[in-house]
Design goal:
mainly alpha; 3 helices; two-stranded antiparallel sheet; 104 residues
Length: 104
């Protein structure tokens, strides 16, 4: 699903990056020139939850670990097929969840 952020149309799948049109007008506290600073701050404040396992992440998010693991497995199958038959997600954005991306 694309949303107009006042800077053109961008997919909500894409992170706000400093090189996007109009980002230089945003305050540094909202969109740091180095996006890794914002992620590090969010990790420190526990705004981004991390875990080495899907089940552990489910616990931190207050979700049923069995259901979340099943959902991730279902999503990964769609990624392997290269077609999102559930929501019609752009095939170029189908990225399987294989291992933890962030570690704090």
């Amino acid at each position: 699903m694309d949303k107009n952020l006042g800077m053109g149309t961008y997919s909500c799948e894409r992170p706000l990056m400093p090189d996007m049109p109009g980002m230089k007008e945003w305050p540094e506290r909202i969109c740091p020139a180095d996006w890794r600073i914002g992620v590090k701050k969010a990790l420190e404040l526990e705004l981004i939850k991390t875990s080495p396992t899907i089940e552990g992440l489910a616990g931190k998010l207050g979700l049923d670990p069995v259901k979340l693991k099943e959902r991730v497995e279902s999503y990964n199958k769609l990624c392997a097929l290269g077609k999102d038959t559930e929501f019609g997600k752009d095939p170029g954005l189908l990225l399987p969840i294989k291992k933890p991306v962030l570690r704090n």
